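Lab meeting, item 3. Inverse folding demo.
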């Protein structure tokens, strides 16, 4: 019988084939408590985007037994890194040099054995730029810093650039409209397959925006890639009427 719960479920199975067109068909169900027939659908919207902000944490370290000499080495290394970044067009405003961390190995209470280098000074220089391609280019040449005598370290955190997409707010209205439209298309197809007409909205959830790596692979995070995909899925329940 047209419009029966059985025909609604059958329509759902037929409608699953529409998912490849950019949206997903959910399942139809009968709300016995309210006496309503409802179809639940999801609409997908995606955009391929490019990161518009990059951070590159450059951690470097100097060691030795003379504190003054180690301090001099860490200052010289900081200048070497600044000069290296200047070669790629980065200015002082793009660079933040954080306070150094000094470790006196001889002062550690549980040490044992001889000390090769008593003092260890580590420091972080943070590069921040909207020119993500230039940051990536500089990072690919980080071995040049090693050739200039800088000892790079990853002991205290990531040492590769971090790429972010900060323009999500500009995409939200258009993508929500698209996701909602695709959900309605799915619901309309569902209603036609079940011999019903599409009614009003019972419940709607705009969904959560996700920023994903465009090329997803094990061990690769979204922040590692300049190319990204923005995705949102809207979930909407429509009434079905005869």
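The presenter then showed the designed sequence:
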């Amino acid at each position: 019988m047209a419009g029966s719960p059985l025909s609604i479920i059958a329509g759902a199975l037929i409608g699953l084939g529409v998912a490849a067109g950019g949206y997903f068909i959910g399942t139809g169900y009968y709300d016995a408590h309210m006496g309503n027939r409802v179809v639940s659908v999801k609409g997908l919207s995606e955009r391929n985007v490019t990161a518009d902000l990059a951070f590159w944490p450059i951690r470097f370290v100097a060691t030795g037994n003379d504190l003054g000499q180690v301090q001099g080495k860490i200052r010289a290394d900081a200048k070497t890194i600044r000069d290296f970044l200047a070669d790629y067009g980065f200015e002082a405003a793009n660079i933040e040099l954080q306070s150094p961390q000094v470790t006196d190995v001889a002062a550690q209470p549980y040490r044992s054995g001889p000390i090769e280098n008593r003092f260890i000074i580590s420091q972080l220089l943070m590069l921040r730029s909207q020119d993500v391609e230039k940051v990536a280019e500089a990072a690919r040449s980080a071995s040049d810093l090693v050739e200039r005598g800088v000892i790079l370290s990853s002991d205290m955190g990531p040492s590769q650039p971090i790429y972010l997409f900060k323009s999500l707010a500009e995409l939200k209205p258009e993508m929500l409209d698209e996701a909602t439209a695709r959900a309605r298309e799915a619901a309309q197809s569902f209603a036609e397959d079940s011999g019903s007409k599409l009614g009003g909205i019972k419940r709607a959830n705009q969904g959560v925006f996700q920023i994903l790596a465009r090329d997803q692979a094990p061990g690769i995070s979204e922040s590692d890639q300049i190319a990204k995909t923005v995705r949102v899925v809207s979930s909407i329940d429509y009434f079905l009427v005869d």
